Each structure stands twice: as C-alpha cells, then as structure tokens.
Amino acid sequence: MKNHYVNNIEFNNAFIEYKKLVKECEENGKPKPRIPEYIGKCILEIANRLSYSPNFINYSFKDEMISDGIENCLLYIDNFDPEKSSNPFSYFTQINYYAFIRRIQKENKQSVLKGKLFSSKMMDFISIQEDSDDDFSEYIENLTTEYSIHINALKKEEERIKIRKELEKESIVSVFDEFFVEE
C-alpha cells in the first residue's frame, strides 16, 4: 500500500479523541481545549499538497491561498462530526479547495481593478506626453494594449465562472467543461 501524506484513519481517530476532550471540557465548564498538534499538521499538509495540484500550482499568491485554506479549516473544525463521517481528509480538502477558489476570485478582481486604474492613469499620461518622443509614446501604447488584453481575458474568465455557477445549479457542469476547453 502506498504511503499517503495524511493517514485518514489516524486523522479520524485524532478527531474522535479531540471531540471527546471538547465534550468533557464543556461538561466541566472549562474552556475549549487547544487543537492537537497532529490535527494541525494534517490540516497544514492538506493545504500545502493541494496547492501543488494542477489547478493551483502556477498562482503567484499560493501562500495566501494556503493561509486562507488553513484559516477556513480552523474556523470550521468544530463542524466535522466523526460520528457522521469517518473521512476528515475529504472534509478538510474540500474546505481548502473552496478557500483557494475564493482567493483566486479575489485576486482576479483586484487585478482587474489595478488594470483599470493603470489604464485610466496611463491614458492621462499619454495625453500629457503627446508632443514627446515618438518611441516613448509607442512604448506606452503597447503597454496600454497589453493591459487591455489582460483585462479582457479576466473579464472573460469572470463571465465563464458566472455561467459555470449557473450551470452547476442545473447539474450540467460536465457538458459546460467539455465545451469550454482551454486554448
């Protein structure tokens, strides 16, 4: 059997023990106990490994994605119930996955805003520099064109995500994914 980076059985057993400890503390009026180190290591390892999946590996803000994933796992750690599910690995992987998606969406929005701001300021600058060197003006125009292309690509991606969310509600995502193959 191949060694996995998180042993799901041990992870689940650690949760069972942690939940027992939490219940004892609640019954005795004590503060909630600290999360065991093993559970924390597993959550950290899940977030780190997920960041190397093909969906997320090439983002420059990978550290922020990992931080968001860990933060969300810690926020929702009490929602995992070992009596209902014996798969904490799947639960926390899913939390990390959606945290990563939300971070990508936030970064894309910021990138669009930066591009719009840059374009508007650049156009002001170009109008001021009309009488200046032709090479410089050409450079600025090329730069503005590149940013416009980038902004348009981000807008198309936002539209694709919006359509995909609507189609997820109708459970026809697989048809959508086949239709919109990356070029």
Assembly category = single chain
**End-to-end gap:** 38 Å
Report strand %: under 5%
Order of helices and strands: HHHHHH
Number of domains: 1
Uncertain ranges: none
Strand segment tally: 0
Average pLDDT score? 81
Helicity range of the residues?
over 70%
Largest sheet at a glance? none
Q: Which structural class is indicated by helix and strand composition?
A: mainly alpha
Radius of gyration, taken over Cα atoms and rounded to an integer in Å? 24 Å
Shape: elongated
Total helical elements: 6
What does this molecule look like?
It is built from 6 helices and no strands. By secondary structure, the protein is an all-alpha fold. The protein has one domain. The mean pLDDT is 81.
List the helices and strands and how they pair.
Blueprint: H1 8-27, H2 37-50, H3 62-75, H4 88-128, H5 134-169, H6 173-179
Helix pairs in contact: 2-3, 2-4, 3-4, 4-5
Defining key terms:
0% strand, 72% helix, mainly alpha, single chain, 6 helices
Summarize the structure.
The chain has 183 residues and is mostly helical. It has six helices and no strands.
